[in-house]
From TrEMBL:
<protein>
    <submittedName>
        <fullName>TetR-family transcriptional regulator</fullName>
    </submittedName>
</protein>
<feature type="domain" description="HTH tetR-type">
    <location>
        <begin position="20"/>
        <end position="80"/>
    </location>
</feature>
<dbReference type="InterPro" id="IPR001647">
    <property type="entry name" value="HTH_TetR"/>
</dbReference>
<dbReference type="InterPro" id="IPR041642">
    <property type="entry name" value="KstR_C"/>
</dbReference>
<dbReference type="InterPro" id="IPR009057">
    <property type="entry name" value="Homeodomain-like_sf"/>
</dbReference>
<dbReference type="Pfam" id="PF00440">
    <property type="entry name" value="TetR_N"/>
</dbReference>
<dbReference type="Pfam" id="PF17925">
    <property type="entry name" value="TetR_C_20"/>
</dbReference>
<feature type="DNA-binding region" description="H-T-H motif">
    <location>
        <begin position="43"/>
        <end position="62"/>
    </location>
</feature>
<dbReference type="InterPro" id="IPR050109">
    <property type="entry name" value="HTH-type_TetR-like_transc_reg"/>
</dbReference>
<keyword id="KW-0238">DNA-binding</keyword>
<dbReference type="GO" id="GO:0000976">
    <property type="term" value="F:transcription cis-regulatory region binding"/>
</dbReference>
<dbReference type="GO" id="GO:0003700">
    <property type="term" value="F:DNA-binding transcription factor activity"/>
</dbReference>
<feature type="region of interest" description="Disordered">
    <location>
        <begin position="1"/>
        <end position="21"/>
    </location>
</feature>
Length: 206
């Protein structure tokens, strides 16, 4: 009952400057705890203490640990996107640029495997109640891919290719984190699926 009530009481968007600062403290605390011990290390009471907010306040922002960790992933992707904009990927084709971008994202997650595992597990466990946060992660990933493609107005076929690439990237993260795929295998899979972009681009020579 506590979590249902908390969900109904979540702060409306847009947040005030003070609320946004509090939210960012919570997300930073979540990431720190996940970096130290993964999914199990992120306990709501410890997040509240680390971010210096009341436990009830934390639940108003994030009704559960799953909500919190999925939002943490969106926040991490947002920071990555800002970095990529400062140093765009190289590559003669959109497929090459997207593959480089996703591998840079993968290597950033690789540097913090406990955090990566916690966020991916949260995505895997997410049910319909977490749909808004999951949608934010998907939109952020799409924006990163479209920026690498250099397409502000992609065709329906290109958007379909982007969705397949997103699915493959997330699947590659899961198989790597579970020890069922090497980094080299992930790279091959990413490069292979990114070729869909060139296949759906009418300006790319066949």
């Amino acid at each position: 009952m506590e979590k249902v009530e908390a969900a109904a009481a979540r702060p409306a968007s847009p947040l005030t400057e003070r609320q946004e600062a509090r939210r960012r403290r919570i997300l930073r605390a979540s990431a720190r705890l996940a970096c130290r011990g993964g999914f199990d290390a992120v306990q709501m009471r410890e997040v509240a203490e680390s971010s210096q907010v009341a436990l009830g306040t934390l639940y108003r922002y994030f009704p559960s640990k799953i909500h919190l960790l999925v939002a943490t992933m969106q926040d991490q992707l947002e920071h990555l996107h800002a970095t990529l904009r400062k140093r765009p990927p190289a590559g003669d084709t959109a497929a090459e640029r997207v593959a480089e971008t996703l591998m840079r994202a993968f290597r950033a997650l690789q540097r913090e495997p406990h955090l990566a595992d916690a966020m991916v597990r949260a995505l895997t466990f997410a049910d319909r109640s977490v749909s808004p946060e999951v949608d934010q992660v998907s939109r952020q990933t799409t924006a990163i891919i479209l920026d690498a493609m250099g397409r502000e107005h992609p065709t329906p076929a290109q958007l379909s290719a982007v969705r397949v690439i997103e699915h493959t990237w997330h699947s590659a993260l899961i198989t790597w984190l579970s020890g069922r795929a090497s980094i080299a295998q992930v790279k091959v899979d990413i490069e292979t699926v990114c070729r869909l972009i060139d296949l759906t681009d009418p300006e790319t020579p066949r």
